[in-house]
Amino acid sequence: MKRAHLVGIGGVGMSALAQAMSVRGWLVTGSDRDLDQRGGTALLDRLRAAGLTLYPQDGSGVRDGADYVVVSTAIESDNPDIQAARTKGVTLIHRAAMLAELMDDETAVAVTGTSGKSTVTGMIGAILEQLGVDPMVVNGAAVLNWATETRIGNVRVGRGPWIFEADESDRSLMSYRPDWAVVTNISRDHFHEEEARALFDRFRQRVRRATIGPLDLSEVRDLRLAAHGCQFRWRDQEVALAVPGVHNVENAVHALSLCVAMGWPLPEAARALASFRGIERRLQWVGTFRGMAIVDDYAHNPAKIAAAWETVRPYYRRVLAVWRPHGFGPLAAMKDALSDLFPALCRPEDRLFLLPPYYAGGTVARTVTSEELAERISARGVAVFVVPDYATLERELQALAEPEAVALIMGARDPDLPLFCRRLAAARAQR
Question: Looking at domain 3-95, which CATH architecture does it have?
């Protein structure tokens, strides 16, 4: 049995790969900064419960006998596990290349694009599951249909076809040669839009059969939006979703288009899609505090922030928005777009709270701060506040809580964001 050691196994993408490798017969171990710095997370606990062995990130997991060390682009070259692999001559392989190897000779559907990848991947998987296809799904986020107290939910084990999320942020989508693909949309995030468009065009050339999208909503009719779902007609078919927002209508159209292209009748696919319950941290309703709704969302770039904010805004008198940049580099890249976005979104009655950029270690330059962004958007009339920590944020939100308000908590990477949402909701029971 081959053994692979995954560096940063607590990330959603790496944890999904770890589970997929395990069910395919690999002996999987891993390490993660959160294990060393925080003592672990709920996700790491579930990996342990699934039989995976976790090590400190000090090279010991490699020295213990790994055949491969799997890394992502986020892992820096001076990481002790990487150094141990080089010392011992252990093969280093990128996460995407390993996933491509797992899927070799399998029918595969890749879902990529700037936004919506995880949701469309989950939608396709849920549709095929309901149609009795038994897909193998490897996603970049947990699908609520499959998440339990013991299962993360970002993997669904099945015979196939493989449905997987292909990441464009590090260009690793070019590792794959899928049979089918979906490109959800193209906008500026990790690259300028022109660069992203060129990347997706190159990726299309690697797809064996057909690529769906990006699509528009020109065929959508009779759109009816609600706080917790929506309905619409597409190609004369009534579609009902248990997730809200125009962006999820777009996601659904992409998922349905792919399934129809693969040969499934639209009426059957649409009925199956109604079973999809959503993605963890994608406009996830967590609870309330003194009547204030608490919504947790992964939004980390301008398009995703706008989609989340515009989805909740019609149903609440006041949006109390919180955003944590997922790194100093991304904040520097997006500061101009965000300086225009937040003033466009924020009404006079709304409030915006900015946390410091998430920093998990490393040598990144801290050239732009949340304070600088706040100064820019405050000059344009936005009621914005920089909060140094979660304790301060909790006090601010509790003071503003009211039944017609929503606390929209947004950001990626930081594992404390979803924990904060749940702590804020749980405080209600203590009062």
Answer: 3-Layer(aba) Sandwich (3.40)
